[in-house]
Write a structure and sequence with these properties.
The protein is mostly helical and 85 residues long. The chain has a domain of 49 residues. 72% of the residues lie in helices and 0% in strands. It is built from five helices and no strands. It starts with 12 loop residues before the first helix and ends with a helix.
Protein backbone atom coordinates (compact mmCIF):
# COMPACT_ATOMS: atom_id res chain seq x y z
CA UNK A 1 0.00 0.00 0.00
CA UNK A 2 1.44 3.32 -1.05
CA UNK A 3 1.64 5.99 1.67
CA UNK A 4 0.99 9.39 0.11
CA UNK A 5 0.97 12.70 1.93
CA UNK A 6 -2.36 14.50 1.75
CA UNK A 7 -2.04 18.14 2.85
CA UNK A 8 -5.82 18.35 3.35
CA UNK A 9 -5.59 15.85 6.23
CA UNK A 10 -2.80 17.30 8.35
CA UNK A 11 -2.64 16.98 12.11
CA UNK A 12 -3.47 20.02 14.19
CA UNK A 13 -1.00 21.82 16.45
CA UNK A 14 -2.32 20.12 19.60
CA UNK A 15 -2.10 16.62 18.08
CA UNK A 16 1.45 17.29 16.89
CA UNK A 17 2.47 18.51 20.35
CA UNK A 18 0.94 15.43 22.00
CA UNK A 19 2.64 13.12 19.51
CA UNK A 20 6.02 14.74 20.12
CA UNK A 21 5.74 14.16 23.88
CA UNK A 22 4.15 10.70 23.61
CA UNK A 23 6.87 9.41 21.27
CA UNK A 24 9.46 10.09 23.99
CA UNK A 25 7.90 7.49 26.32
CA UNK A 26 8.94 3.85 26.01
CA UNK A 27 6.03 1.56 25.12
CA UNK A 28 6.88 -0.73 28.05
CA UNK A 29 5.59 1.88 30.51
CA UNK A 30 2.01 1.30 29.40
CA UNK A 31 2.33 -2.48 29.52
CA UNK A 32 3.74 -2.36 33.05
CA UNK A 33 1.10 0.16 34.11
CA UNK A 34 -1.61 -2.28 33.03
CA UNK A 35 0.04 -5.12 34.98
CA UNK A 36 0.25 -2.88 38.05
CA UNK A 37 -3.44 -1.99 37.71
CA UNK A 38 -4.35 -5.68 37.49
CA UNK A 39 -2.17 -6.52 40.51
CA UNK A 40 -3.55 -3.63 42.53
CA UNK A 41 -7.08 -4.67 41.63
CA UNK A 42 -6.40 -8.24 42.74
CA UNK A 43 -4.90 -6.99 46.00
CA UNK A 44 -7.88 -4.73 46.66
CA UNK A 45 -10.27 -7.60 45.89
CA UNK A 46 -8.46 -9.86 48.38
CA UNK A 47 -8.66 -7.05 50.96
CA UNK A 48 -12.44 -6.97 50.49
CA UNK A 49 -12.61 -3.59 48.76
CA UNK A 50 -14.77 -4.84 45.90
CA UNK A 51 -15.84 -1.53 44.33
CA UNK A 52 -12.37 -0.01 44.48
CA UNK A 53 -10.93 -3.20 42.98
CA UNK A 54 -13.35 -2.96 40.05
CA UNK A 55 -12.51 0.72 39.56
CA UNK A 56 -8.74 0.13 39.52
CA UNK A 57 -9.08 -3.03 37.41
CA UNK A 58 -10.73 -1.01 34.66
CA UNK A 59 -7.53 1.01 34.23
CA UNK A 60 -5.72 -1.88 32.52
CA UNK A 61 -7.53 -1.48 29.18
CA UNK A 62 -6.92 2.27 28.82
CA UNK A 63 -3.24 1.77 29.66
CA UNK A 64 -2.97 -0.87 26.92
CA UNK A 65 -4.81 1.40 24.49
CA UNK A 66 -2.41 4.24 25.29
CA UNK A 67 0.44 1.81 24.59
CA UNK A 68 -0.99 1.06 21.16
CA UNK A 69 -1.35 4.81 20.50
CA UNK A 70 2.25 5.31 21.63
CA UNK A 71 3.47 2.63 19.22
CA UNK A 72 1.45 4.06 16.32
CA UNK A 73 2.82 7.53 16.95
CA UNK A 74 6.35 6.15 16.84
CA UNK A 75 5.72 4.23 13.61
CA UNK A 76 3.25 6.42 11.74
CA UNK A 77 3.29 9.81 13.49
CA UNK A 78 2.99 13.16 11.77
CA UNK A 79 6.75 13.59 11.61
CA UNK A 80 7.05 10.61 9.24
CA UNK A 81 5.66 12.73 6.40
CA UNK A 82 7.40 15.90 7.56
CA UNK A 83 10.84 14.24 7.42
CA UNK A 84 10.32 12.79 3.94
CA UNK A 85 9.70 16.21 2.38
Amino acid sequence: MKNEFNPEHEEGKVAKAIEEQTAKLPSDIFLWASFVAIGASLTLKIMGRKHTALFVGQWASPFLLLGVYNKLVKLEGHDKNDKSN
